[in-house]
Amino acid sequence: MFKLKKDEFGDSIKNKVYEFRVLKRLTQSELAKAVGVSKQTIFVMEKNNYSPSLVLAYRIADFFQVDIKDIFTYVGKDDNND
Asked: What domains, with CATH codes, occur in the chain?
């Protein structure tokens, strides 16, 4: 069995969790509790150092009552100019 390195494909998931959370005037702890994760998970997600599972991404979108694509964006290798 082989393992791929995290950045081998050069793609990522960007998110707007921070923006949505601040607009709702929620703390990281409050959002974490609402979607069933730790505060640390929200923290690293907001820093774009963690891509959530698909289930968690849907939970967050459902919590904010928006489409998942309003919060999470796939950035392909050729689109990632960071």
From this structure: 12-75 (1.10.260.40)
Per-residue model confidence (pLDDT) at position 81: 54
Q: Whole-prediction pTM value?
A: 0.81
Q: What is the DSSP secondary structure assignment for residue 77, as one 8-state letter?
A: T
Q: How far apart are CA 33 and CA 31, in angstroms?
A: 5
| Residue 6, C-beta contacts closer than 8 angstroms, at least 6 positions apart | none
Q: What token pair was written down for 39?
A: 């505060």
Exposure pattern of 42-77 as b/e (b: 16+ CB <10 Å)?
Answer: bbebbeeeebbeeebbebbbebbeeeeeebbeeeee
